[in-house]
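Model the whole thing, not chain by chain.
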Amino acid sequence: MAMEIDDSSNNLQRKQSLYKSLDETFGVERERYTGQQYSQIYFARLHLMRTILYSLVDTWKPHLPVCTVLGLELGKECVIVGTLYKHMKLKPCVLDEYSKERTGIPLVRPHNFMHPEDHLVLEDESGRVKLGGTVISPSLFVTGNVVALHGKETSAGDFLVQDILEAGLPPQEELPFDTKDKYVVFVSGLSVGCSSSNPLLSQLLVDHITGHLGDEKEQILASQIVHVVIAGNSVELPTGLFNGQYLAAKDHSKLSMPIKELDILLTQIAAALPLDIMPGTSDPANFALPQQPLHRCLFPGTSAYNTFVSCTNPHSFEVDSVRFLGTSGQNIDDLDRYSNAESRLDFMERTLRWRHIAPTAPNTLGCYPFTDRDPFLMEKCPHVYFVGNQSKYENRLVKGPEGQLVRLICIPKFCESGVAVAVNIRNLECHALSFSTDLDL
Amino acid sequence: MVGHSVCCNVHGFRPYFYINCPPGMGPDDISKFHQTLEAKMREKSANNGSPKCILQIEMMQKRSIMYYQQQQSQMFLKIVVALPTMVSGCRGRFFEAFKREDVRLEGRFNNLQYSSFLFAFYCSSLLCLLAGILEEGMQIGTYESNVLFPLRFMIDCNIVGGNWIEIPSGNYRRTAKTMSYCQLEIDCLYSDLVSHEPEGEFSKMAPFRVLSFDIECAGRKGFFPDAKHDPVIQVANLVTLQGENQPFVRNIMTLKSCSPIVGVDVMSFDTEREVLLAWRDFIQEVDPDIIIGYNICNFDLPYLIERAQALGIADFPIIGRIRNSMSRVKDATFSSRQYGTRESKEVSTVGRVQFDLLQAMQRDYKLSSYSLNSVSAHFLGEQKEDVHHSIISDLQNGNSETRRRLAVYCLKDAYLPQRLMEKLMFIYNYVEMARVTGVPISFLLSRGQSIKVLSQLLRKAKQKNLVLPSVKRKGSGDGTFEGATVLEARTGFYAKPIATLDFASLYPSIMMAYNLCYCTLVTPEDVRKLNLPPECVNKTPTGETFVKSNLQKGILPEILEELLGARKRAKADLKKAKDPLVKAVLDGRQLALKISANSVYGFTGATVAQLPCLEISSSVTSYGRQMIEDTKKHVEKKFTTDGGYEHNAEVIYGDTDSVMVQFGVSSVDAAMSLGREAAEYISGTFIKPIKLEFEKVYYPYLLISKKRYAGLYWTNPEKFDKMDTKGIETVRRDNCLLVKNLITECLHKILIDQDIPGAVQFVKNTISDLLMNRMDLSLLVITKGLTKTGEGYAVKQAHNELAERMRKRDAATAPTIGDRVPYVIIKAAKGAKAYEKSEDPIYVLENNIPIDVQYYLENQISKPLLRIFEPILKNASTELLHGNHTRSVSILTPSNTGIMKFAKKQLSCIGCRTVISNGEQALCPHCKGREAELYCKSVANVADLEMLFGKLWTQCQECQGSLHQDVLCTSRDCPIFYRRKKAQKDMAEAKLQLDRWQF
Ligand code: SF4
């Protein structure tokens, strides 16, 4: 779609790109709650991952026999594949909420539930075995990971781990060759309606993207933006409005104002270029992953444009055959609560190596009880892997053993940082777009 | 050879008893008496082969324990009874471990059981017969003729329960033809046994082998398993060495194949016969000293034996330590004043102590439910999944995987008792109790309190050359006499600190202070006859006379002194001890000592006990009352403004052994120092060792009525220790959880936050939630145990009627006898009887049946609420129960009753609920404009439910310990069970509704 960007002499033409949504796997419209439980998604996950891991074991430990947890024999070295379960001392337990006697001291919720006594257990359909040894560190893994382990059963009945095999980065399509710079812009955490969000800041962003701002150089850059993705938490609705029975008239407006405001912002973008919006924790969407697209009735203005796509979280798509995958942040935030890493990028890298973007679902991360599939499994390796609503902007290029190249991006919360992120799909380079209302741009 | 089990056949010990020597009888007359008696015996007992019944009659100087007597002793006859020849020798069985074989044999005497059922029967019937002849036939009183033979043996050999015994080398020989399954078997004379007091090295525990087991049986649908029909399909066993925390054997025996389980030895068999025999062989092989489990005494053990009988496996029930001794099932009733009457079954396992955790729990803890699930939730802080017995058969009939599932469950059930036992230190506490009171451990569980006191009394009496008369039990006439009354309670809410003055061990101290005993009691005639000087006697408030200790020291006071002295020592040692195991022993001991000291008083008052003496017990309580009243007088006289104190002290309440005083000061610190001062001052006015102690301050304090109060409990002025409540509905069984939560929360607000308006608001919100149907169903569930079926109950009862109805709906899952029936009270047609309004909570959930909120309001929460609010709130009833908050009411539309069944399901507008014709839409044209807002509401609802759904179901996965298997649990005791069900149903509905908003 061509857009006139400026009335100055040289008319800039916005670049075009080919967009393909890959969200189908995250849809749950056809799913029903019919009493199914979470065992099935674990089962599906184990099954799929095991096929992958078994195919790798031949080259990893060619001489070792592959066993099930049951088939372990004392002292015999072997390889077992199963789902990890992390036994955590501090893990909050719903039972406590209901059954514990009231104490004088309120419960303090730590933000991370790690404890030195945590230990890992490997489970397959046949049983569980406690893992021992120093090779496998409980702080790096979480419940729900599927791994292959080399080791042997000790006399105490534990499995002494000697080596670990993860599925590794999935195979990747080669990055298409292109000479032109094209950018995809990511933003998350607009938090319209939140007391700390600054409407001006969001407007600056929109103006920049749409090319209504800055000098020619900036406008040229803007014209190279081919796609915008909003990675969750676009609005913040006042909490506590829904538990009461009836909403008073003034509450109606409290509720709909932020959404209206957002609609206006989005309309401006959608009028200029293609726009994807993903739901996040604070958006009016369901809670469990995959979160379903925000309903169009929320955005009467923007919905009129066919450039506007309301998509799922996680969200996967291709722009000019460059593959993108990302979430609004829940998966990585949850890993941070139940495991340790230096940086958020490390968590992201781990999920790539695990080939699974949300291993803690369903255990600590709400998710739909799928019966025959696990949509969070990564079949193909994306070129760009992003998570929204992080505390700061970070990025890293990860190279896989088979030449895979993945750009990892932590998208900061816009309302706090004023930062959006642009990725060049030609070379996967990325840079921050910072906005501030204090300084002149 | 440490840790081996030993069976010692002790020879030469004979049962005996005493009689008063008939007046005028001399040594020469004895043989004639002997013959007459023997003849009478033969006549009565249709001789059974034994050549002689009475072995020996001996004259002895003894004295009866009853009443103060001036002469030192009288002539008694000791009648020694012969032992039946069919059982060779009289044997106590005990199990010992070699330390150094050549030097000495040290062992562990843990349990003394009759060597055989037959023998015990013979022995006691013989004594009984003889005593009967003497008492009724010849009018001669007998002494100590009803002492249980094992106890007699232990007393005479100075052996207590949990005792180390040495048999010096040379004094025993290995038994040639062994009769037991013990690793060692020896013979010796009873006089060669050396018993070591449990002190120092000998206070250690023996390395008991503890077997914890659980069985599963496949019941038929709708019936509780019956050994005549239903097979035993699995038996799980864990064997642990006492003092270690991991079992060293874990196995399971299953009927039909079962997939392996990590760390567990799975043994599968094709027939039930093989399963049972494998278990028997296993028992003989591991040779456990203690068998534990949950409800094993009344269920698992009898079931196994009856099942073997049904299958005709004659040689199954050899699970004791004696070869050829068959275990049988006996019906027993056990009654005691403390625990009431219980029917139970008894299976003898000679040489192995059965320790049923269920019985121990019921005995030692007051809980609202004793299911293994709730007990482990309570003590171990974890839920246990519960598989309904109708599912068990399905799992069994599946494949080896489903049976494995069952096996894992069964193993868990065997492991939990083991963990409970460790956590609650049952072994330590019971062994210490056995040591202190001198009875075998098995008595502690299977008998009441009185045997413990009797054992101590007999031991002490023996030292003093006293004998105890055998009193015919006077039925179970309840010996309650005027109990300890309490001072009138001045009810109300006290915002000033209340100091509590406690009598330390009041009843024992009274008995010691006034030398109250059987042998110091002077009969009314003797009072007249003997003319004792008044300074030598105490006249009790009830008018009895007891001599002071300078004339005759009482035995009971002496026992008490020893017990309390030992407790003091144990407590002092406990403070010094470092080793956790030693600490456990000492703590168990001091507790045992305390309980024992307190039970002495009860022994004298219990008419069902061996030697009731109401003169003693009523004197004790009357003294107690006097002490309390004296305390009140003293406090109110001394602590006055006239006496130089800031305020006039006021006694607001007095309980059995404590007095609550409001000194009027407003700081905890000041109340504490006054409390201490008062305690010291008043103690000075009492005879030693009666002592008033100051321990705690309540602040604030809510006194509801006598025996009902709540307050914050302070032992130091900086910070309160806890909230303490007494007699307030928090654990009553037939209350729903709502009551408990509501009351706890209110008390919390009133006492800790001191926020009375907040508490009132909370009550109002809760009531409004209840009326508006926003209450979580699990809070409304009431549970009762089903003990009889339909006709068994004379009066129709809610739970039992419901069980009948459920049986009609689905016999397979309906509760059967022994199950607990959870129900909620539902709205029913006008005039419906209360018992018709009970309904299965699951059924209620599934069919949206409206709850009878009025019932909950009036019959459940109103009384307890008013009780706590009346002292603090004017018009509590109108304010709380009839205010504005009770105006809006919402009632669910049931989905399958009456007319609704036939009504066509019509879609209505999500916004305004008007019926919409175009079923494809979510909203009516009218509400179209509010689309965004209404959508937000729907989706927020879905989000909440999803969060709940996820949390609940993953918790269950965690609880059952598997991610890859479906949760099967139907544990209705678990706080999340109904929530989980409800979340599932609500989720399905919410999702459907959300789907109506199409894109
Ligand atoms: S309902 Fe769930 S948490 Fe409760 S006992 Fe059953 S499995 Fe455990």
